[in-house]
Amino acid sequence: MELLKQRIREDGVVLPGNVLKVNSFLNHQIDADLMFAVGEEFARLFKESGITRILTVEASGIAPAIMTGLALHVSVLFARKAKSSTLNDDLYTAEVYSYTKKVTNRVSVDKKFLKADDKVLIIDDFLANGQAVKGLLEICRQANVEVAGVGIVVEKSFQDGASWIKQHGVRLESLAKIASLADNKVVFEGE
Ligand code: 5GP
Fold first, then answer.
1. Ligand 1 centre and the CA of 132: distance in Å?
2. Alpha helices, DSSP H only, in the chain?
3. What is the pLDDT of residues 71-81, one digit of tens each?
4. Which of ligand 1's atoms lies nearest the C-alpha of 61?
């Protein structure tokens, strides 16, 4: 998605540890027009897939997920990072190690919001080593729902997540694919 790549080139800041900071338009301040276009692009890619629900994880996945839900006219469910590890029979839960925060969160969704006949599209802001997506796939497995695919705003293709998802036969659509962040420089795939 050229508009997104252009914005990353203009405003993205490369931090140590292969982290791209995009908090001026994606995960702190949100450029609503850009996010609307992101939602429309995911909707275009998945419009034939019979999606009935979008699933993401709080907080940074929510903006692109909502815009996709708006474009596809389906509800958006976000896994919450629960504070306590108290067992709760009404929840599907998974452990997710955060790439940027270096902590493990237990994420959960209420069972009543995922039904066995749902066809789910997983959305997230970034894909690095795939921990967040793996956690969301685990929740879908517990709920016995079909996963139509994964939509990622910014994929860091040089990390392990993208190949893991494809190897497991899950459709992956990423709107910007970064081949390298070496020397503080953003290089997109194909450049
Ligand atoms: P993964 O679970 O695939 O290892 O990492 C994806 C999650 O970590 C995303 O939900 C995102 O919040 C965060 N993340 C990973 N890499 C980056 C990055 O380079 N920049 C930002 N802003 N977030 C990242």
1. 8
2. 2-11, 32-46, 62-72, 131-143, 161-167
3. 999 999 999 99
4. 10
Compute the distance from residue 127 Cα to the ligand 1 centre, in Å.
6
Q: What SS3 state is found at 182?
A: helix
Residues 6+ apart with CB under 8 A from 73: none
The structure tokens 């970034």 sit at: 126
Whether pTM > 0.85 for this model: the answer is yes
Tokens (6 digits) for 75? 């509800």
Query: How far is residue 132 CA from its own chain's centroid?
Result: 8
* 99 Cα: distance to centroid of ligand 1 (angstroms): 6
Range with the poorest average pLDDT among 1-15, 17-31, 88-102, 130-144:
88-102
Q: Which residues line ligand 1 (CB under 6 A)?
A: 19-22, 27, 60, 98-100, 124-132, 161
Start-to-end CA span in the chain (Å): 14
